[in-house]
Each structure stands twice: as C-alpha cells, then as structure tokens.
C-alpha cells in the first residue's frame, strides 16, 4: 500500500488526476471504476480542465460507478447518475452509453444487482477503482457489520451514513434509506485501487482502515489485502498515521 499525504489541495487533486490521466494515456480503452461523494469532486474538475486543454480524451473509456441510491428519480439532483453527469460526464468526450451507474429505480432491484454484477464479471475487472471512505469505514456502500457481501447488493444505509449525507438533502428524512452497491469482491478485483480521503474528521477511520485489524467491522480495512493500492490523504485525514 502506497500512502501519500499532501499539504495542499492542489497537489492532492493534481496527483489523483495524473494517476487517472496517465492510465488513460497508456490505455485509451481503460475501464474506470468511479465514485461519488464530496471527495472526488476536485479530481473530476481537474480532469475536465485537462480534457479542455486537450491533454486527455475519454472517448474510448468505459466507466462503472460503485453505487446508487434506491428510489430517487434518475434526474433527482442528488442521484448519483445526476452527480456523475453534472460533475464529470457532461463535460468530457465520453459517450454516455459507455458510462454505467446502478439503476436505483429498477422494478426488480435484486435483478438489477444481478445484472450489474454480471456486467462487471463480463467486462471487468476495472483498471482502477476510485474510492472514498465513509466515517464508519464503508467503501462503496458496503457498511460495517458481522459479514460483507461479495456481489452487488441492496443495502440498508446506516444512520451514520444517512447523517453524513444529509448535508446534500433538505433534511435527513429526505436521504434515501437504501442503496445498491457493488460488493467487496468486485472492489478487490480492480487492478489498482485509488483511495482518496480528506478531512480531520476522517483521521480516526483512516488509521483504523490502513493500520488496524482487517475486519468486516471496517470494510476499508480489507484494502490491506489488495496488492496495488494508492492512498492519497490531506494532512487532516493523515493526522494519526506516523
Ligand atoms: C460514493 C461512495 C461512498 C463515499 C463515502 C465518502 O460513491 O461510494 O463510499 O465515497 O461515503 O463520501 P464523501 O467523499 O462525501 O466524504
């Protein structure tokens, strides 16, 4: 595991963007596993900027997102499909049909999970999986517990996750209670993992995930078993690592 801590936002974002753009330069048909949330917003903005300057093209790239809320209309401002379109896809040259986000409005959600998984099995593994880290140690929406699912599945979001995400909604009551997430097996199959974490409020969970015991009670701790993980932290998030 290669862990880097950055003093300033600009170098944090530039490093993340250069990891993704170099991969796309070497392989213009790269498969990218993408994440939402506040952490990768700067990375997406930097990649858009690089694309506008003619430094990177995503025309041949295929993307697979980690997760989606259940029950938000696709064009809801907080659906992860809307997030990805607005924060990234609409500003680069990727055809939208090469982008994939689970459908949280599928009539048969179990079947949607099965099909998303089958797609990942058929076209995966992704060349790089971008991840953020939840305050409770979740990756994707794989919440801590006595066991974890390997496959794409329907998950009930924990109170801590809903509270953290309430900042994007009018109130906590508007935060969906369920989501679809890819499982830890799919995450672990990625050729490379790029974990981004910022903020002092994540310092404790960063320490547990990277230095603590490997346990389903902290899903991100499983990343310690992956052979190719790059972790980028800001100083706040890396505070407890020595
Ligand atoms: C998002 C996702 C989540 C977030 C995590 C951190 O697709 O899967 O695991 O990465 O909740 O969110 P932020 O970046 O908002 O702190």
TrEMBL record:
Its EC number is 3.5.99.6. The lineage of its organism: Bacteria, Bacillati, Bacillota, Bacilli, Bacillales. Residues 13-226 form the Glucosamine/galactosamine-6-phosphate isomerase domain. SUPFAM superfamilies: NagB/RpiA/CoA transferase-like. Pathway: Amino-sugar metabolism; N-acetylneuraminate degradation; D-fructose 6-phosphate from N-acetylneuraminate: step 5/5. It catalyses: alpha-D-glucosamine 6-phosphate + H2O = beta-D-fructose 6-phosphate + NH4(+). Belongs to the glucosamine/galactosamine-6-phosphate isomerase family. NagB subfamily. GO terms for molecular function: glucosamine-6-phosphate deaminase activity. Catalyzes the reversible isomerization-deamination of glucosamine 6-phosphate (GlcN6P) to form fructose 6-phosphate (Fru6P) and ammonium ion. InterPro entries: Glc/Gal-6P_isomerase, Glucosamine6P_isomerase, Glucosamine6P_isomerase_CS, NagB/RpiA_transferase-like. Keywords: Carbohydrate metabolism, Hydrolase. It is an enzyme of class 3 (hydrolase). PROSITE patterns: GLC_GALNAC_ISOMERASE. It comes from the Bacteria. The active site is at residues 67, 136, 138, 143. This is Glucosamine-6-phosphate deaminase.
